[in-house]
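Lab meeting prep.
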Amino acid sequence: MVIEIFVKIIIGVAYGFVLTFLSLPISKKLILNRSEDPGDTLALNDKRNIVLIALAGVASSVAMMLLVKDNAELVRNMLLLIPMLSIALVDSLIRKIPNSLLLTMIIMQGGYLAYICIVGKTTQPLITAALGFFIGFVGCTLPSILKIPVGAGDVKYSAVIGLCIYFTGYVQAMMVMGVSALLLLVALKITKKGGLKTMVPMGPLLSFGSVITMCYPMLNSLVALNDVF
C-alpha cells in the first residue's frame, strides 16, 4: 500500500512538470495570437511565476493520482488538466478564453463519454453530461441578463465545465470558485491592491474549483442528488 502511494506520487510529480512545460508554450502562443502586445507573455517568463505554475501543476496531478480511483476517469482528468491550466494562464493575463482549448476539452470528454457508454452499455452519462452543459450555460448567462458583466468566453467555459463534471460537479465547482473569489478580493483589499469592485478573471478560479471537484466530488456523496441527476 505504501509503495503504491509512493509510486502514484512520483507519477503525479512527473506529470505535473510535463503539464507545466506543455501549458507554458501553449499559453504563450495563444496569447500572442490574441494580443497586440507581445509584453503580455512576459509574466510567463518570470522564474517565480514558472515555479508557482509548476507547483500548481504538480499539486493537481498528485491529488488526481491519489484521489481518483477509476482509471478511465483518471486518464480523462489528467488530460483535461492541460487545457484547464492553459485557460487559467491565458485568461489571467489577457482576459480571454481560447475556443481551441474549449474544443479540446469537448473532444476529450466526448471520447471519455463514448468509452463509458460502450463499456457500461448505458446512455445515462450522456444525459447527465448534457444536463451539466445546459446548467453551466444557463448558470453563467443569467448574471449577464442581470447586467453583471460576464464574457462570452466565460459562458462557454462554464458550459464546457458542466459537460465535463456534470451537474453536481458543476455546482460544487461554482461554490469553490465563489469562496475563492471572495478570499481573493479580501486579500486584494487588505494589501490595498484592489477592492470589491475589482474585476477578477473567472477562468483561473473556475479551473481551480473544477480541479478540486474532480479530486474530491463531495456533492456526489449526496445519494438523492445522484439519483436525480
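Slide two material, second protein:
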Amino acid sequence: MLTTEICVIMLFAAAAVIAYAVRPSSSGPARQHLLAGTLSHEGPDDSSLDIDCRDDGTVTIWRNGLTGLTSDDAVSLAINIRGFDIEINERIHRGNISTTASTDIDSACFTIDFLACELYHITYKIDGTVAAAFTMHVRHGMHRHVALTR
C-alpha cells in the first residue's frame, strides 16, 4: 500500500516530466539571409576566413583562398540563423566565359548587418561539407582568423 507522501512525490515527478516535454523551443524561429560577395584579388593564398566587427556593429567576412574564379563568376552565402546557432553555406556560381574576364580572383568580401552583440556558434560549409566550426562574439574591434579544411 502506498503512503500519501509517496503518491504526492510521484504526482510532482509526473508533472515535472510533462512540463519538460511540452515546453517551447528556446531557439526561436529560423531566419535565412542571402548575401552576394564582392570579388577581389587582394586576399592571402590560404583557404581561410578573416572576420572583423566594425564600430557600427556590422561584421565583415573575407573568404580567402578561392581558386579558378574569374570576374564573371559569383560567390554568395546562405546564412541560416536559429537562436545563437548560425549555419553558413558558401555557393559559387560560374558565369559566362568572356575574353575580358579577370582571372586573378582569390577572395570575396561579405558584409553582415543583422547580428546582435552576442556569442554565436557558427558552422561554415562549402559544398555541403563542414569546413569550419567556431564561436564568434560580435563586439566592437573583434577580429578572427579561421582556417578552412576540405
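Talking points for slide two:
The two ends are 64 Å apart (CA to CA).
DSSP finds one helix and ten strands in the chain.
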